[in-house]
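Reopening this ticket.

The earlier resolution said the output was attached, but the attachment link was broken on my side. Pasting everything inline this time so it's all in one place.
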Amino acid sequence: MLDTLIFAGQVIVPKSNGAALRGTQMNELSFIDNGAVGIKDGVIAFIGTAEEAAQLQAKEKIEAEGKLLSPGLVDPHTHLVFGGSREHELALKQQGVPYLEILAQGGGIHSTVKATRETAEDALYKKGMFHLNRCLTYGVTTMEAKSGYGLDKETELKQLRVAKQLNETHPIDVVSTFLGAHAIPENYKGRPDAFLEEMLSLLSVISKEGLAEFVDIFCETGVFTVEQSKVFLQKAKTAGFGVKIHADEIDPLGGTEMACEIGAVSADHLVGASKEGVRILGESDTIAVLLPGTTFYLGKDHFAPARDMISSGAAVALSTDFNPGSSPTENLQFIMTLAALKLKMTPEEIWNAVTVNAAFAIGRGDVAGSLEIGRRADLVLWDVPNYKYIPYHYGVNHVNKVWKNGKLVVGKGDIHANYTLST
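Inline output:
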């Protein structure tokens, strides 16, 4: 007997065949009209039509005719753990105050670094829990979390330890990435190589305590060069970590090409990726993680060339880039709308980019982002009639229910509630 049997008007069943979907594969989305999914002991035990499921026995049957059922969403690029907030900077940006001037006034990333250094570990945990609760209500069941607001040994480790604790106590699976090389701190100004060596010295502790699976670096004009980033990431790979890169967000420096060359799991942002970089990306296994919310919030007109990437044969994923400075949102549903309007992605490509491909971008392609018999039951029931509706109807939360490992963790009455989840 099943524990739970859910009948829905449409069930999304993404197909991955053990790898991220590339190029034209991204426009292929499998679904079942008038479908059903059965859960037993926390895993998926049945997927099929409502007619096939009619004779099945279950302790609980949920009739959701006219609603959509999908895998839990995956958010593969966030900066979850940080202190403070930067709402005061929005007015400065509206007045046209340049970012460098905001930095000079003590704002920008340095403001968040200061706040994160000064915030106790338990307070960072409570704040992270608040944001995770909100992400869960938006349908996210797996997500990545980067450090990078410490820029010193003590605070970077503090962020990673908080992320590990959140993973252990919150229903959302949190995959940690060490982004110590997020910026050059004031005390290392003019000495970026020395700072990178200090960050590399943390890898043994991070590995020993199991604090991160991936290592990331911000490769951009005024931060770290392509060559510095390459050396840094190669040393991280040698130490046993998967590697990622913030690349070509503003200038086409060649970070995309380098990421593919060294076998990075993902290259993120890529707004300024060159045509050659896009071509090479399409021939590599590196996944492009695109962050249209950041471009939108910064008021930029030029978005990442998603259509060119998909045409080249690349695998594309989407993410919120949730952070306090350039994309303060936990709403991955809104990112799906931006992907349609600004990246010109189809509904099918968008769904694959927030499920299958997003899971592979953080090393979870075998357990998240798809519905398969035997997999854990991470499911979202949506108050929408079909998968095309969510990118279309923007600015609201369409979630009705969320199951994590077969357990109902969000019900209709919980949406937007400020609550503490039991574990």
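Reporter confirms the inline version is readable. Residues 121-137 form the longest helix (17 residues). The chain has a mean pLDDT of 95.
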